[in-house]
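pinned: reference chain
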Amino acid sequence: MLCPYQILGTGDEKVRYAGGVDAVQALQLAMEKIGAELYFKLDRQLGGKLRWEAGQQGDLGFPLPPGVERDI
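pinned: its structure tokens
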């Protein structure tokens, strides 16, 4: 299964995909890929100032892949 996702407002609005053995795994992997893209691309470009409205600095509201840690 594939789960398409798109991050709007960052200049690159390309539709990307996460694939899994079923819909649930595809969705989980898409959430992790979104977290990684937000953290490793956009948040670093903004000097660690990106956060979601309900969170604290460094909390982007999406999980990161297992074994990946934030350095902020």
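why pinned: Residues 35 and 62 are 5 Å apart (CA to CA). Residues 2-45 form one domain.
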